[in-house]
Amino acid sequence: MIWTEKDYKKGETKVIKAKVCVIGSGCAGAMVAKELARKGVKVVVMEEGPYVPPSELNQKEDYLIPRLYRMNAMQPTHDYSIDVLEGRCIGGGSVINAADCVMTHEEVFKMWQKDFGFEGVEWWEVKQACEAAKKDIRVNKIEPARLNRNNSILFETARKLGYSCDTFEHNREGCVDCGYCMIGCSYNAKQSALITLIPESIQYGAEFYSSAFVRNLVFKNEKAVKAEGIFIDFSTSRGIGRFEVFADVFVLCAGAIHSPNILFHSNHKFPENLGKFLSLQPQLPVMALFDEELISYRGIPQAVYCNQFEEVSERDGYSGFRIESIMVGPAMGSGFLPEIGRKAQAFMKNFHKIAAVLVLFPDKPSGYLKKWNTNQPIIYYEMKDELKNRIKKGLKEATKIFLEAGAKEVLLPFEEIISVKSKEEINKIDNLELKPGLIKSISAHPQGTLRMSMKDGVVDSSFRIKGVNNLYACDSSIFPTTSSSHIMLPIYAFAKLCASRILKNL
Amino acid sequence: MKRREFIKKTGAVGVILGFPTQRPRVPASARRIAVIKKLVRIVVPPGEEIPVDPEKIGLPQKIENFISSQIFFVKEMMRTALKVLDYLPYFKFKFKRFSALPDEEAEKIFVALRESRFTPLKGIYLGMKSIINFMYYSSPEVWKYIGYEGPLLKEEKR
Question: Mutating which of B63, B153, B156 best tests the A interface, going by the most A Cβ atoms within 10 A?
Fold first, then answer.
C-alpha cells in the first residue's frame, strides 16, 4: 500500500512499527524494499516526496517538476555553479532520469578494492547483482533506427570523425517517443521503480509512506531505535502531523545529499568524514542552432553517447569526459539560457531548431556537505584546475562535432552569450574563464558523502554505518569515487547486495 | 518614574512614531508582486520575437503563488531576495525602490548582480531569472512562438 497525504490526520502523531525501515524510495530504497519484502520481512518505506501515480503524469512541466524534483530542480551548490538534480517523489530518481543503464567498470571497482578496502564485497557478486537488476528493470539496447534527429546528429557525426560512439542500454519498453522521460513517463514505458519494484514490494507486503519527511534518527546504546519526522502537505508545504517509526533495522536510501543530512541532525557521534568526499560529476550543456527543424524534444531524449575521451584505469578510476545527446522541455531547458530579455528570447524562438548535448565530467571527490537546516545541507563544491582544463577540452570537442554536423552557431554554457560559428573560432574556448555561477552546469549524479571504505569511510564493507550495528546505507552516497557515467544501475546492484547483507544479519 | 510606567510611555511613543495611522500599510504580497512585475518586464519582455505579454497571462501572480507554495526555508529565502532587490537601488543612490525604477535602470541593477562578489546577490539574479523563465516557458500561450507543440496527451487525459 502507498499512504498519501489524504490518509494522514492533522495534528496526529502516527506510530509505525516494522522490522526494517527504509528511508527513501528511489532506486536504492525500492530495491532494498523489494528484496527484503520478498523474503517475508515487514518493511516500511518513508519517502519525503509525494506520490504521483502514472495517471497524473500529464507531461506538463510546471505541474510535474515541483512534484517530482527536489527544490524544483533548482538545488544549487554554495556558489550557484551547479544545479544538483534529485528526484523527490515515490520512485525517486528512477521516475525522472533519462533511463540510461551503465554499470560500474571493473577497473573502477578494483581501484575501490585496492584503495579503500572492500573486504567482503567481490566483483563477481557485484556483476551478478547487476545482471539480476537488469532483469528487474528490463534493460535492453536502443536500436539506432529509434534515434530522433538530435541523437542522430551526434551518432553520425561522431562516427564520421572516427570517434567511439554508440547507443545506450536503457530500461524502456513500448516507448512512444513522446520525449517526456525527465518528467515521468505517462505511458508506463520507462520501467522506473514506480511501475516495477514498488508494486512488487507492495505485493509482498511492504508499505510506502509518501510525503513523509524523516528529520532524524534517535539512538540509544549505539543502536538506532526510531526515525522521527513529519508528514507534509504538498500544496502548502506545511506539516500535517508527525510520525515515529520503530524498527530493528534502518536503511538510508535518501541520496548523497540527504542521507548524510539525516545523520547531521541525529543524536549520535558518527565517523568524522560524514558528508565529505562529494563527487558531483558536472554536466555542461552545449546547444547548437541548425537551419532545419529538428524537433529534438520528441523521441528518446538521451539515446547516444560518445566515449572517445573517456578514461578508465585501475590506478585512477573513471576520468576524461563523455558527450551525450540530450533534450528537455522548454521550461526546464530555459534554465540553460544565457542572458535575459530579448537576447535570450531570440535564442529560445528557435527551440525547435536546437540540438543539444551534455558533456559529462567524472570528477575526483572535491566537495562536502555542511549542516544547515533539517531540510537542506549546504553543498560545497569547488571545480579544481584539472577539472576546468578538462571542461574546456570537452566543450571544444562538442563544438567541433556540432560544427562538423552543419550547425550555424554553437552556444556555450555561460551566463553571457558566447557562441562559436566556425572551426577557426574553437580555440577561443581555451581563453574562457570558468567563473563560479556564470557557467551553466548540472549534476544528476551526486555521489560519495557516506563513503564506503574501511580506511576513511563512514560505511563499512557490510554496508553498515561504522559504530552502529543496525543502520545501513546503500544509495549513491556510499560510492568512494565516481562510479559510472550513469548511476542508476550501480545503485540497483549495490542495493541488492546490501539487502542480502541485511537478510544475513536479521 | 517607575520602570514599568517608563516602558509603557516610551513604548507608546515608539508605536505612534513607527506606525503612523495616516499612512496605510501595503500588504507584503502586493510589494512582492510589484517587484516581480518589474522583474518579469526585464527578463521576458513582450516583443517581436515572442509577442506574449507576461502580465496578460498572469505571470506575476503565478510566480507569487509558486513562491508561496515552497517549503518554509525556500519560501523565506525567495521572499527575502525580493525584499533585498526592492531596496537595493538605495545603496546605488537611486532613492527609489526597484519596483518604481524605469525598466532600463532596473535592468542595469539586476544584470549587475550576476557579477557581484557577494554570492547571495548572484543567487538573487540566477534564482529569479530561473523561476521567471521556468514559469514563462511553461505557459501554453508562449509555445507556438518557439515551435513547441506541447504535451502529446489529449486534454481529457490530463
Answer: B153
